[in-house]
Amino acid sequence: MQGRLVRIEWAGEDDYDLIAGWLKPLSPNAAMTADTREFLTPAKVKAANEDGNIRFFMAVTNDGERVGAVNYRPVNSSGSYSIGGIVGDWQKWSRGYGAEAFGLVIEHLFNGINAHRVEFTTAAYNKETLKILTKGGFVLEGVLRDYHYLDGMYYDRTIWSILREEFEEHAAADAGQFPVIDAIPAEDKDKARELLSKYLANDPPTSLRDFDRRSGRTRSY
């Protein structure tokens, strides 16, 4: 999926080292994502991605640089997903790469796999993510008090979500600036509809033609 600044593509074999390196303990990303106690290895990233527990996508700039990663995983009921992500180099934060990558994966969830609810959780000190969530159509659902410990202090964890109707409303409002790109172009769908209509106009054999005969069948024994 292609945006203005980045595209997202399926993480490959060479990307697992990158992701694990970006999230290593004591790294700026580990602090921002509140994963300072987690030791993530390339093997763990690969296993999670290939098992389907977490789907990882790379954020790639227009000149081919892999600047970050976004992911999603199913949670609880059908149609609910949790998302996460990072921009690997902290010097590239606040350039719009992360916001656009998040937008692309959210678009994929709602338009590609029929999501109903997408959620995101972040520490109350993460200004980069909060800048995205507070103007991206998300709704603050809750606050978990003193959930994270960093720099000698406790910080709250915030829980956000966006439902399908909220996504559609937000997407419609921003359609001029951020158009949704269809996986199959609209003109191709129109052509397929035209071909099918012409075929049906000639009263061809279809499953409906002999419906009465099939529905009236009885067992032969």
UniProtKB/TrEMBL annotation:
SUPFAM superfamilies named in the record: Acyl-CoA N-acyltransferases (Nat) (SSF55729)
Limits of the N-acetyltransferase domain: 6-160
Any Pfam family hit: Acetyltransf_3
Span of the signal peptide: none
UniProt-recorded name of the protein: GNAT family N-acetyltransferase
Native organism: Saccharopolyspora endophytica
